[in-house]
Design goal:
single chain; about 40% helix
Length: about 190
């Protein structure tokens, strides 16, 4: 089922192609990972202007904050670190950018009106603040069990993040009709060659 553009937040990169969106706020992590579309050759973090627009629309960067090439390099490294977490490689390959980010910021405890204790990121004045917010969303999702449903496509040429809503939680592809069929056809051809 393709979701209409109006059903996803305005900052979502390619809502017309997203068939498996995560629930909020995990959708922000999914959208951030999907700022690169390898099949289309588009990377929203490659260009400072495009990156600024996306990051500010997503609430990850103050519109007046500086955005340097080093910031974009950090954002890309964090994005790929999160993608590795989603791929569930054992052990994850690129935790260094995530560990560096975690060490650079600290969360604040909050008390809600009902007495609930929460963990919040400071405002998104700098890109590092917005990236740190993603780590807190991941932390919450790991606690509530939704993290295990966010995955990357098993097609190495795609690697699109998708939310697995299947009953058995064993989804492997962002779209069975494209990536799933491609991989199955490759495997079939390889077996026939043997």
């Amino acid at each position: 089922m393709i979701h209409e553009v109006s059903t996803l937040p305005l900052w979502y990169p390619w809502p017309e192609t997203e068939t498996k969106p995560a629930p909020m706020p995990l959708l922000l992590v999914q959208a951030f990972v999907n700022t690169v579309d390898t099949e289309r050759g588009q990377d929203l973090l490659d260009d400072a202007t495009t990156a600024r627009t996306w990051l500010t629309d997503a609430g990850m960067l103050d519109p007046n904050a500086a955005l340097t090439p080093a910031d974009l390099k950090q954002a890309t490294a964090v994005r790929e670190g999160i993608r590795e977490l989603l791929a569930r490689t054992d052990p994850p390959l690129s935790l260094a950018p995530l560990r560096g980010l975690a060490a650079s910021r600290s969360a604040q405890l909050t008390i809600g009106d009902g007495g609930q204790v929460g963990l919040e990121a400071p405002g998104a004045a700098e890109i590092t603040d917005g990236l740190f917010r993603l780590l807190l969303i991941i932390h919450r999702a790991q606690e509530d069990g939704t993290w295990s449903r966010l995955r990357v496509c098993a097609n190495d040429e795609c690697r699109w993040a998708f939310y697995d809503r299947s009953r058995n939680q064993h989804g492997s592809w962002c779209d069975m009709a494209t990536c799933g069929n491609r991989l199955k056809n490759r495997e079939l051809r390889a077996r026939k060659r043997r």
